[in-house]
Amino acid sequence: MDQEVVELREYAKSLKEDPTASIDEVAMLDADFFQQTSRSLVRKLDITLMPIIWLLYMFNYLDRNNISQAKLNHFERDLGLKGNQFNTAVSILNVGYMIMQLPSNMILTQVRPSLYIPFWVCVWSCISASTAAARNNTHLVVIRFLLGIAEAPFFPGVFYLLSCWYTRKELALRTAVLYSGLILATAFSGLIAAGVFAGLDGAHRLAGWRWLFLIEGAASFCSGVVAIFILPDFPERQTGSASWLLTPEERMVAVERMRRDRVSVEEGNKSVWYGLKLAIIDYRTWVFVVMLIANHTAYGFNYFYPSIVKGFGLGSTTVTLILTSPPYLLAALCCFAFAYSSDRRGERGFHMSVPMTTAAVGFIISAATLSVPVRYFASFLYICGCFSANAMVFSWASATLSQTPEKRAAATAIINLLSQLGNIWSPYFFRPQDATRYLMAMLLMMAFALLSVMMCLIMKWSLRRANKKILAEYEGRDEVPVLFML
């Protein structure tokens, strides 16, 4: 090994061992060594952190969304559901989700994510499995409400954790990888349900939908236990998997990378309440809130897609469940393509507005025709469009609202919390009397998709103005400013 690199490595170790040394001194290290260590750090995160949170997110959505498959297996009949009671069961989860989300993300900045996140994974797994014991609508509503509370800490928590380890230019692709867990969970949930219903329906006098909740809840619980040993904590801490996975140099570089990546650094009070204040007074937080509410409303079809496909009359329940998978598999590929392009080009706004425009076209086609093949094709458009855009929102918001870690945590939680309003009201778009075409729902989701496009363009305009001001402030100075990503 080159002697200079050896000396730099020893210097980095001495910095870590010296409690009086500033973490910013790592910036004095050789640039090549910094980049080499940074690449090593990212590679280790990609093969440990990303797979486990991808798996957890897949189970997060499986446990939340399996009610839509259960609907095709006498679920409503067995529980005596009538009218809009199924819609309420879908919607009530998001009420619990909203209640818990912001407090959870504020707590997360003060605790160990490697313990906090797996704890909630195990809790929601048990609650989801308990759906198998439900006997009436009241049982179902209570279980779904508690499931929302237990699932709330996960997504904003793991996204905040990702934003503490990955830079803005790295985050979109990793967010798409994470989001593909949701998409593939939706894709494979139909296949899993088809297998369970075909092989276990009536086994030991239990309906197939009860087996579905039990099996997926047990698998989710096991993944939560495994996560305890693989998740890292924050870069500044020597706990979690970082204690055995990363070298001292890599931990220092992790901290320095994030310091360099911020548009600006707020000094002073670093409390979670100060971070909450910064997030609330920033108007861009609220533009992102409206954007994501519109996005979530636009993909309100998700819980009802098996019923939509069932209405096409293409075959048995097994055939219907199998046919729900292809659009989501294509959506996963589209997510990766848009995220890769977004990271390469350093652009977010058009990479969100184009997919949402495509989704709006899909909704228009679904509302305008009775042709089954055309409507099935249109579902590819709105599924790919909605999911590709949603994979981009949080990476854009995190990069824009990252002046302090506390602000980023609070802003992420606020955006994700209030976006659940879209998930609360969108199930009621799908009125039982409108089955199977759901014309009103398609028109409303089209309108919200276009609202999302408008918010993207407003945000892009706002950030372009902000970048011009930053460049004007740095004019004539040697220092290169960090700009907002458009």
UniProtKB/TrEMBL annotation:
<feature type="domain" description="Major facilitator superfamily (MFS) profile">
    <location>
        <begin position="49"/>
        <end position="464"/>
    </location>
</feature>
<feature type="transmembrane region" description="Helical">
    <location>
        <begin position="438"/>
        <end position="459"/>
    </location>
</feature>
<dbReference type="GO" id="GO:0016020">
    <property type="term" value="C:membrane"/>
</dbReference>
<dbReference type="GO" id="GO:0022857">
    <property type="term" value="F:transmembrane transporter activity"/>
</dbReference>
<keyword id="KW-0472">Membrane</keyword>
<keyword id="KW-1133">Transmembrane helix</keyword>
<feature type="transmembrane region" description="Helical">
    <location>
        <begin position="352"/>
        <end position="370"/>
    </location>
</feature>
<keyword id="KW-0812">Transmembrane</keyword>
<feature type="transmembrane region" description="Helical">
    <location>
        <begin position="409"/>
        <end position="426"/>
    </location>
</feature>
<feature type="transmembrane region" description="Helical">
    <location>
        <begin position="177"/>
        <end position="199"/>
    </location>
</feature>
<feature type="transmembrane region" description="Helical">
    <location>
        <begin position="211"/>
        <end position="231"/>
    </location>
</feature>
<feature type="transmembrane region" description="Helical">
    <location>
        <begin position="141"/>
        <end position="165"/>
    </location>
</feature>
<dbReference type="InterPro" id="IPR036259">
    <property type="entry name" value="MFS_trans_sf"/>
</dbReference>
<feature type="transmembrane region" description="Helical">
    <location>
        <begin position="317"/>
        <end position="340"/>
    </location>
</feature>
<protein>
    <recommendedName>
        <fullName>Major facilitator superfamily (MFS) profile domain-containing protein</fullName>
    </recommendedName>
</protein>
<dbReference type="InterPro" id="IPR011701">
    <property type="entry name" value="MFS"/>
</dbReference>
<dbReference type="InterPro" id="IPR020846">
    <property type="entry name" value="MFS_dom"/>
</dbReference>
<keyword id="KW-0813">Transport</keyword>
<feature type="transmembrane region" description="Helical">
    <location>
        <begin position="286"/>
        <end position="305"/>
    </location>
</feature>
<dbReference type="Pfam" id="PF07690">
    <property type="entry name" value="MFS_1"/>
</dbReference>
<feature type="transmembrane region" description="Helical">
    <location>
        <begin position="376"/>
        <end position="397"/>
    </location>
</feature>
<feature type="transmembrane region" description="Helical">
    <location>
        <begin position="115"/>
        <end position="135"/>
    </location>
</feature>
